[in-house]
Amino acid sequence: MLGSVRRCRSFRFLVSPTVCQRAALVGLLGLQCELYNAALEDRRGAWRWEHRSVSYVDQCRTLTTLRAIRPEVLTCGVTVCRGTLKRLDWAFAGFYRRCRAGQAPGFPRFRSRSRWDSLQWEDRSGWHLDEASRRLHLKGIGGLKLRLHRPIRGTPKAITLHREGRRWWVTIRCVDVPAEPLPAAGRQVGIDLGVQVLVATSDADLLLNERFGARAAARLTAAQQVLATKQRGSQHRRRAVERVAAAHRHVRNCRTNALHQLSRRLVDDHDLIVHEKLAIQNLVRRPRPRPDGTGGYQPNGAAAKTGLNRCIHDAGWGHLLAMISYKAESAGRTVIAVDPRNTSRRCAHCGHISAGNRRGAAFRCLDCGHQAHADTNAAINILRAGRAQQHTTAQGRN
Ligand SMILES: [Zn+2]
Questions:
Q1: How many Cβ atoms sit within 10 Å of the Cβ of residue 139?
Q2: pLDDT, tens only, 148-183
């Protein structure tokens, strides 16, 4: 079963284009943005005037007619154009999916050139990766120097080129990536995710939430204030925008790095990792307004909830769980998600459940007097629930 899974992984590398290549790439970005907008107009018009829907395949067919009218669009090959049309197709697919789900999505929009930052090649033509000379050859652009800081595994299938500030990155998507099984560690762990303590393990390890976002908030605010004083369209404003973007990027990089290290450690050291099932969408939902009957509103804790939401986003639980999941899959470890009900109220020692067991970060059982850090207690309960679940599935299989 496992052997038949086509394991996909992405590898991201820094690209150093020459000045000429950079200019060519910026030109290509502009053309692809134009193509996207034209294709969107095509779909809108066809529906508005003829009630006819245009598909991705239909639009790909019309690309050949561009050779006569706008040959410059095709100088870098047809693959990158198809990638852009695919993006539009995804936008529409997302729109219809949300419509069907009864949500109120926004219709796909025309895109601005200044925000159009990526190009994608969705199949294996139009580009060629030369690992020996560390170059990525793009049709119409040339050989881009690549900083290959790690070996690429699997078979490269598609690429995305992305501009981030002054830097360019390539994401290489590979299929059939071989697994990297790890020797058995002989340990199991339950983890409790929190806001103060990011991860508490059942081994009484407490990892504080670093809150990179909160730490950088002052710097970010300062950068945004500077930006607000600049005149639109000015050279200074462009630089200030760049500085705000860099501040956001820095926070994101710090957070991702910390989560990668943490998930790597958890997967390396444990054969079984149990976490609570999370519904982050529900956790960060806005509190319901509480009308007071006279046209006003009673306090509903919205401000406090906003603060908590920011902390939850800052902690990056969803990202952490995703990283644990794919690293564990490749290493041959087991990950189990359990129902979080009562895990923080149950005594890990005697099993007594009471809301009074917990006071803030301290856990003290009202029945047997067992004392522990509240998050460690919860993590032990989570591990136990995971083991029980594993046992039941194993029995069900026999
Ligand atoms: Zn107890």
A1: 17
A2: 999 999 999 999 999 998 899 999 999 999 999 999
